[in-house]
Amino acid sequence: MTQDMDRSEAAQARDAEEHPAHGDYITHAKSIGSWMFSLDHKRIGILYAVTAAIAFLAAGVFALLVRAELLLPGETFLSAQSYNQLFSLHGIVMVFGFIIPAIPGFLGNFLLPLHLGAKDVAFPRLNLFSYYLYLLGVILIVVAMVVGSVDTGWTFYTPYSARTGPAVLFLAMAVFVAGFASIFTGINFIVTVHKMRAPGMTWNRLPLFVWSIYSTSIVQVLATPVLGITVLLLFLERLLRIGIFDPALGGDPILFQHFFWFYSHPAVYIMILPGFGIVSELIATFSRQRIYGYTAIALSSVAIAMLGFLVWGHHMFVSGQSAISSIIFSLITYLIGIPSGIKVFNWIATMYKGSISFKTPMLYALSFLVLFTIGGVTGIMVGVLAVDIHLHDTYYVVGHFHYVMMGGTVIALLGGLHYWWPKVTGRLYNEVCGQIAAFLIFVGLNLTFFTQLVLGSRGMPRRYHDYLPEFTSLHQLSTIGSWVMGLGLFLVLGYLLVSLFRGKKATANPWGGATLEWTHTGVRPDPHNFHRTPFVTRGPYEFDRIGASRSETVEDHRGADPPDVALNQDRT
Amino acid sequence: MTGSFWLPDGASTLSSEIDSLFYFVTWASVILFAGVVAAIAYLAYRYRRRRGGPAPERVKPNKMVEISWVVLPTILVLIVFNWGFRLFVEQSVAPPNAYEVYVRGAMWKWDFEYPTGAVTTNELHVPVDRPVRLVMSSVDVLHSFFVPAFRVKQDVLPNRYSAVWFEATRVDTFQVFCTEYCGTGHAAMLASVITHSQGDFEAWLASAGVDEDTPLPELGAQLYEQQVCVTCHSIDGTPGIGPTLAGLYGKTETLDDGSTVVVDDDYLRESIVEPGAKVVEGYANIMSPIYGGLSERELSALIAFIREQQ
Question: In angstroms, rounded to a whole number, what is the distance separating the alpha carbons of residues B296 and B116?
Fold first, then answer.
């Protein structure tokens, strides 16, 4: 059996390299239509990547403007009204346009079938439809917000949002269109993981990225419909004047908050779980070590996905919900901290007795461990009932969730982007620029958001266009941090664009990865991924067995996947 | 800036305990964080990839290690939960003798209405060393009442009352913020809490919004309506939730412990300020003690009014 696997693995790589005539997934067809109507999961992944990158750029610029206005107390260049619209745009575009769809849409689409040894996802047409729903949703969101001057923040709390009139209804509808994209993608991925695994790809041989995408999909399918129900109720209230959320009609504004957070808290896990998956891949590959506690990491993702449905009330400790509810939600919130802690400890333990290389993706993975730990412990802090009373709706909360979303998800995505860049584009990025940018982003992020933790615990409320003079120096530090971070991110944009056109050609497995996309495909995968269905006989992190498998055949000089001895000469 | 690096100076009876919990979690976090960073740094250096270095060695997971990093954090968070929970109960339940002020949030100002009927805008005056309970509602959208120095915050809702309480410990002026986003003027929806010593507060209250010229019985009649005494105490002899005021003055009442009392000025005053002290037989002890906040002149006015109801 091992012999079969070895031949298959080596033969795959040989086939992939020896059949360039058909072209890989990028060169085989070049028309615009072949991209816009492609059913290939890899091309759809790239459509997501481009759209999400534009959304991230736009929402990032909004954030820089918001921070710039806060450089000085008093009104500098934005009126209160425009400031409020900008932070709302920042939040809504970041959440619905970027952070929810980015990793599942881009890396999830690109990698899931490759990781499973499949030709494509289970429903390729549904996959393309999801992308267009997402695109339509994002466009409608931006149109609604700009035309309707929406300034409600991303939380849309009633009754304030009811005053904004039809724009908020239109916007809610747009968010729900994007939500459907999320539901369809979730269904597609769940079925793909269940039905499309290659022979021998058992559940405990799945790369941890697959486990995390699988957990995310479950949350997407179960939580997103609640968003739809909320939108429907908002419509019923506005059109039929039935009092549901608006006190003027006899409704209950706290009910809206329950509905909102019942979706939006699980959505937080939709945002962070895929990041966990990426970090698992990065740490394993760059330590050349099996993941410590594979089962614990895999199952903790599932546990987080499940418990994530039972903690929404921790956003509402001061809303006026009953004290009993607050106490129960606080307790469950702590329980969800445990699986997150287990993951961090396992990732650190994975480095033990490894062979650690500090390439850019690994720098992001290590940044992630540090930043996510800060995000985690500040999360414990805001989960403490008595202390949250003081910290709720201050910059402490803003700092906390940016450590998780930016320090967690975005850093993981950047790590993943660099790691899979050679597989996606067939080219290498500039390693020195990559390391400088990773450093700038790490420093800028801490300067921006650690300062906000201190601002918040000292009493600075969030969503304030202006502030008291005593907060000036901290706000200025935070704004300077945002510039450092912005510089780092623009540097990434710059050298990746350069790499796209002038980058050094990559080899099939530049990092020595052990998952199927590295060992069984060419520099860039073929349109149908694999020439023969892979036959899997080992786990995703058995790095010692990729080298061994090659040396048993005559191919060891051919691939870009040198044995350990060669890798150990690669001084970094 | 005053206060420590993390927190502004506390000024309520509960703030020091909340701060202790904050610092406990902070230091536990710092220790955990330092451990994580030290472990990463050590492993990253010790097992860095180098020429001729050892090949990665397969590590067999250690059950005890895995169990310990599930159990230890669980114990730690349960300690924190329990501490936070006990404090939260104290924060949620106001002491029964609290001085009550009504708070109305509106886009974008705060109105404070005292038991005397005095109303102030964006300035809340309270005594120190006495629990103050704020009963709050909004006339439009959601707001949230936040006093960092007292470590209290509570959302203010339309069509519903929410409450928050604190007991200030020193005489000063404290910042109030609105912390629930409420539109264009959100950042300007500020107010201050001005604390007074008990005596100064009485003096302030007496001078605030009280009309010194109205004859006492007339002022009493106004207060009877304004303070909604009318809901429970009729003046036409019909028994209500509380005893009627008609013919009350000078009457001998039997109390719920069987003793009797003659209704005079002192008894009336005591029954308004501290309603639970001597409860008339057949009535429940349910009258709110908030009228203790009425000024001396208002108390006299009410008594004068009651005296007239024969």
Answer: 10
Residue keyed to tokens 């584009």: A425
CB contact under 8 A, B55 and A564: yes
Q: What is the ipTM of this complex?
A: 0.89
Reply yes or no on whether the pLDDT at A99 is more than 90.
yes
Chain B nearest CA to A390, separation (Å): 5
| Alpha helices (H) in B208-250, listed in sequence order | 216-226
Distance from CA of A389 to the nearest CA of B (A): 6
Alpha-carbon distance of A161 to A144, in angstroms, equals: 13
Closest CA to A336 of A297, A300, A377, A292: A300
Output DSSP code: residue B11: -
**Residue B215 exposure: Cα atoms within 13 Å on the Cβ side:** 4
Residue B140 pLDDT more than 60?
Answer: yes
Q: Which residues of A405-417 are buried (b: 16+ CB within 10 A; e: fewer)?
A: bbbbbbbbbbbbb
Give the pair of three-digit tokens for residue A451: 């300062």
A459 vs B: CB within 8 A: yes
Strand order in the sheet with B143-147: B123-127, B191-196, B173-178, B143-147, B152-156
Helices assigned H by DSSP within A351-404: 360-383, 385-391, 395-404
Q: Number of C-alpha atoms within 13 angstroms, CB side, residue B180?
A: 33
For residues A261-281, one letter each, b for 16 or more C-beta atoms within 10 angstroms of the residue's C-beta and e for the rest, the string is bbbbbbbbbbbbbbbbbbbbb
Contact yes or no for B107/B178 (Cβ under 8 A): no
CA-to-CA distance for B278 and B264, rounded, in angstroms? 13
CA neighbor of A106 nearest in space, from A61, A46, A58: A46
Q: Is pLDDT at B80 greater than 70 in this prediction?
A: yes
Q: Taking CB atoms and an 8 Å cutoff, what residues of chain A touch B5?
A: 454
Could you say which of B51, B57, B146 has the minimum Cβ distance to residue A353?
B57
Please count the residues of chain A.
Answer: 572
| Residue A513 token pair | 């990865």
**Structure confidence by residue, pLDDT tens digits, A192-217:** 999 999 999 999 999 999 999 999 99
Give kind and range of the element (H or E) at residue A75.
Answer: none
- Kindly state the average pLDDT of the residues A249-275: 92
CATH number of B99-207: 2.60.40.420
What digits encode the pLDDT tens for the residues B252-261? 888 888 888 9
SS3 per residue for A107-152: HHHHHHHHHHCCCCCCCHHHHHHHHHHHHHHHHHHHHHHHHCCCCC
Considering the domain delimited by A2-14+38-553, tell me its CATH architecture: Up-down Bundle (1.20)
Q: What is the C-alpha separation between B203 and B208, in angstroms, rounded?
A: 9
Task: Pull the structure tokens for residue B122.
Answer: 């964006």
Residue A21 pLDDT greater than 60, yes or no? no
Q: From residue A186, give the alpha-carbon distance in Å to each of A102, A111, A192, A344, A533.
A: 13, 15, 10, 26, 24
Q: How many Cβ atoms are within 10 Å of A250's Cβ, its own excluded?
A: 11
> How close A447 comes to chain B (CA, Å)?
16
Please state whether beta strands B152-156 and B143-147 pair in parallel, antiparallel, or not at all (unpaired). antiparallel
Architecture of domain B216-308: Orthogonal Bundle (1.10)
Least confident range from A35-49, A147-161, A454-468: namely A147-161
Q: How many CB atoms lie within 10 A of CB B298?
A: 26
Sole residue written with tokens 């009932």: A385
Q: Which candidate, A192, A217, A350, places its Cα nearest to that of A285?
A: A350
More confident residue, B145 or B246: B145
Residue B293 has a pLDDT of 66
Report the distance separating Cα A251 and Cα A242, nearest Å. 8
Q: How many CB pairs under 8 A join A and B?
A: 252
